[in-house]
Design goal:
The protein has 347 residues and is mainly beta. The strands form 8 sheets. Strands 10-11-12-13-29-25-24-17-22 form a 9-stranded antiparallel beta sheet, with no helix packed on it. The relative contact order is 0.18.
């Protein structure tokens, strides 16, 4: 059966003192589609009638990233899942990418998607999964929940796959700051080998120090980061900014969260932050020069490509069903929850 890619889109809006915040989410994969403030989009456009490239916007569950050979072991017995990435012979991003979630609740500015993971050969548990998107004054909050109906503990991991975007700016020229002390070194199949300090992560022929700003065009990677530095509120924030004077920390005096000043000589003051609470101890960064370009009619432009960046709040690193590192174990009757979100600053 062919799944209609754009038949389950939900539109939300929230008027703030600074203007109109609008967003679209899709019950197919509980994914993010767009996030606009006064018409300027902060999520990477794609052809919504087609399968999103690079798993754009999807919610990942009951695992995130790759599972080695599609297998993990329960009581010494292999649990086998379909191989979904042939090049690495792995099961990628869980079991719900092609699932149309139910809409459990919806308001003008929020929506809750929910679905059941029923027992299968590769995941013999009954777990209810839900995601609530709530618009806020500067973006949105996504709250993930998982409830174990099974009579035995269920391993679980989840995450999100938002692609960030500054309308009118080449993504490769943006700069990223990752609040991590460590990263997961991987092999040629993008499966974990070791956890190392970020100072050992090569970027454009140099080494990355925690808190460095790195140009995305020099940072084409697919890596997990952990040991996140958190602010006093317990939140870790991965940041994207524009180049130029703003890279030195310039901010318009007295500007509000969305404040804009015409004729600002420092250039475009926008910044995006992906934030995640302590339930999401990892952030995965995938930066690619091969994201397809969308034409004004919503179709892809004859093989044209551009840079794309996803900053993924995740609960564990790659192959966590086998490494067990930071893997959630839901006891019978337990509900787990965690939140992440997008903040648009100086938008």
């Amino acid at each position: 059966m062919t799944i209609s890619q754009d038949a389950h889109i939900v539109s939300l809006s929230l008027r703030t003192t600074e203007g109109l915040l609008e967003a679209e989410f899709n019950a197919l994969g509980a994914r993010q589609v767009s996030l606009r403030f006064n018409g300027r989009n902060a999520l990477q456009p794609y052809a919504v009638k087609e399968v999103p490239p690079f798993a754009t916007g999807f919610t990942m569950a009951p695992w995130a990233n790759r599972m080695r050979d599609g297998k993990w072991y329960k009581d010494g017995h292999a649990q086998t899942n379909p191989i979904t990435e042939a090049s690495t012979n792995t099961a990628l991003h869980g079991l719900l990418l092609e699932t149309v979630y139910d809409i459990a609740e919806q308001t003008e500015s929020s929506v809750t998607f929910t679905t059941d993971l029923n027992p299968s050969d590769g995941y013999p548990f009954h777990v209810t999964v839900s995601v609530t998107y709530q618009l806020t004054v500067d973006g949105f909050t996504a709250t993930h929940r998982a409830f174990n109906h099974s009579n035995e503990p269920a391993p679980y991991a989840t995450g999100a796959h938002p692609y960030l975007y500054f309308e009118g700016i080449d993504t490769e020229d943006l700069e990223i700051q990752i609040p991590a002390e460590s990263w997961t070194r991987v092999d040629s199949r993008l499966l974990p080998v070791a956890t190392e300090p970020v100072s050992k992560h090569p970027v454009a022929g140099q080494l990355l120090a925690a808190g460095d700003w790195i140009r995305l065009g020099n940072f084409c990677i697919d890596n997990d980061f952990l040991d996140l530095k958190r602010d006093a509120d317990g939140i870790a924030r991965t940041k994207l900014r524009l180049p130029g004077l703003l890279a030195a920390g310039f901010r318009i005096p007295g500007a509000s969260a969305f404040g804009a000043v015409a004729g600002n000589e420092a250039g475009d003051p926008r910044r995006i932050e992906i934030w995640q609470d302590e339930s999401f101890p990892h952030v995965h960064v995938f930066s690619t020069p091969n994201y397809p370009v969308v034409a004004t009619d919503g179709t892809y432009q004859n093989g044209l490509i551009q840079h794309g960046i996803t900053i993924e709040p995740v609960t564990s690193g790659p192959d966590s069903f086998n490494t067990r590192n930071d893997l959630i174990l839901l006891t019978p009757g337990q509900e787990w929850s965690g939140s992440w979100g997008i903040s648009l600053l100086n938008w």
